[in-house]
Amino acid sequence: MLMPQTALGVNRELVPHMWVLAAMAVATVVLAAGPQWVVQAGYRCGLQALTGLRCPFCGMTRDFAAMLHGGRPALNPCSWVAAIMVYGLYPAAVLVGWRRGRLNYFHGAAVKYGVMAALAAMLVLNNLR
Question: 11 phi and psi, to 5 degrees?
Fold first, then answer.
């Protein structure tokens, strides 16, 4: 099956994934070089402010900064799993999908419902304490 190409000859389905991977790389460099820039910015989770519940990602910024500096994540019990998914599984899935010419599997029902189930589990686990 022929994939639609951009003017530069790049697979159109690959472009959004390349943007996501580039954003992940920039965020990692910022957290590694100067975590205080992000951690001390004073951002507040909207879900926590409105409901008192910690969202699935509450604490992950500080946990990722700690992991990048050799520390252990302590604020979110799902930080290790998220790190494996973000830095391992997602790039590998993009690479395999690109090599096989099947990047459209990211749009399938299994991925959609899998992500929804994972977020629900993360929400519950992050609020158990």
Answer: -60, 125
| Segment-wise mean pLDDT, segments of 10 residues, the chain, 129 residues | 58 90 95 86 87 93 91 94 94 92 87 95 93
Domain boundaries, the chain: 15-126
Long-range contacts (CB closer than 8 Å, 24 or more residues apart) made by 101-107: 101/1, 101/3, 101/11, 103/11, 103/13, 103/14, 103/17, 104/13, 106/17
Distance of alpha carbon 49 from alpha carbon 46, whole angstroms? 5
Interatomic CA distance for residues 119 and 55, integer angstroms: 9
The pTM score is 0.80
50 burial type by CB count under 10 A (0-12 exposed, 13-18 middle, 19+ buried):
exposed
* Side-chain half-sphere CA neighbours of 84 within 13 A: 3
Structure tokens at 113: 């419902």
